[in-house]
Specification:
Elements lengths: L2 H14 L9 E6 L2 E6 L16 E5 L3 E6 L7 E6 L8 H12 L2 E6 L12 H9 L3 H18 L5 E6 L1 H9 L9 E5 L6 H5 L5 E6 L7 H13 L3 E2 L14 E6 L15 H21 L11
Parallel strand pairs: 5-6, 5-7, 7-8, 8-9, 9-11, 10-11
Antiparallel strand pairs: 1-2, 3-4, 4-6
Length: about 300
């Protein structure tokens, strides 16, 4: 760890010694002449590790492991699922992919951590772990996944959805038209910068939680206000988007909800379960609106 990162770590550590377990911090530091946002690990919650997934684990180009699940019968398009910091083997993420397949989509969950998800530890370990996953490699692995879906599976229409860490990757993936992403949904993406949100080049829905300490509501409002000023936002799922200055963005904030409420909800709590179900239905509605239908039969095999 270089000196600037070490100083940053010491500063954060001194702030976090409050007793108990602190699951998050966003701090600003200077590395060289570059300002960075450092987003810390969050609690795993209900990772659904007892869930028995329906898909298949395979390895594609560049030795990238993916979890693949395809619908029975006709297919409406393809969706890439981007996991949170706990990795692609977590049942909660595979359940999302399976649910997408049940709604008619070919779903792919790539291992963007290449077998090295966050497994817990102190802040120094977290910084070193995060540095082992450079954004350039993550970007390339998402492009590899898109190429696999289009060339190997014959899917022209590709969307992307992501959670927590993956929620930010959704935003970054839509910044460049070269990714060929046609629709996106980000759930409580962490550390999203205003300029990154403004650069989104595909219709994108951003779902946040009012009580989220990982992605504070004040930061969400900054994103929402910037999109409003740029005339890039709609205020309901079915609102007219014809007068916008670019692809539609929609920001929805769930009241009295916490971080990871949609994919790691406590299903024994009926209120929490209802919020999770509503968020997922919003995801399906967005995909239905913005991902062109692609009717294909006999996609299994």
């Amino acid at each position: 760890m270089d000196r600037s990162r070490l100083l940053l770590f010491v500063t954060v550590s001194s702030l976090l010694i409050v007793g108990g377990c602190i699951c998050f911090a966003v701090v600003w530091g200077v590395v060289g002449n570059k300002k960075e946002t450092v987003v810390g690990p969050c609690e795993p919650g209900d990772t659904r590790n007892d869930y028995v997934a329906n898909g298949t684990d395979i390895v594609i180009t560049s030795n990238l492991p993916i979890y693949l699940v395809e619908p029975v019968g006709s297919c409406s398009g393809a969706v890439i699922v981007v996991h949170d910091i706990h990795g692609y083997e977590v049942g909660a993420s595979r359940l999302i992919a399976d649910e997408l397949a049940m709604h008619g989509y070919t779903a792919v969950l790539p291992d963007l951590f290449r077998g090295n998800p966050w497994k817990g530890g102190d802040w120094g370990q977290y910084f070193m772990w995060s540095a082992s996953h450079p954004q350039e490699r993550v970007d390339q692995d998402i492009l590899t996944t898109v190429d696999y879906l289009q060339t190997e599976k014959g899917m022209e229409n590709v969307a992307i959805v992501g959670f927590c860490w993956g929620g930010k990757q959704v935003v970054l993936a839509t910044k460049s038209p070269s990714t060929k992403i046609q629709a996106a949904v980000g759930f409580y993406g962490t550390g999203i910068a205003v300029d990154e949100a403004l650069a989104m080049s595909a219709p994108t829905m951003l779902i946040f939680a009012q009580n989220d300490t990982v992605q504070p509501l004040a930061d969400v409002r900054l994103i929402e206000n910037a999109l409003q000023t740029a005339n890039k936002i709609i205020h309901s799922l079915n609102a007219d988007d014809s007068e916008l200055s670019g692809p539609a963005a929609y920001v929805k904030i769930f009241e009295d909800a916490d971080h990871a409420f949609a994919h790691r909800a406590n299903r024994s709590d009926p209120v929490a379960a209802a919020k999770a179900d509503e968020a997922k239905q919003d995801m399906f509605a967005w995909l239905e609106r913005y991902l062109p239908m692609e009717e294909r039969d006999n996609v299994i095999g």
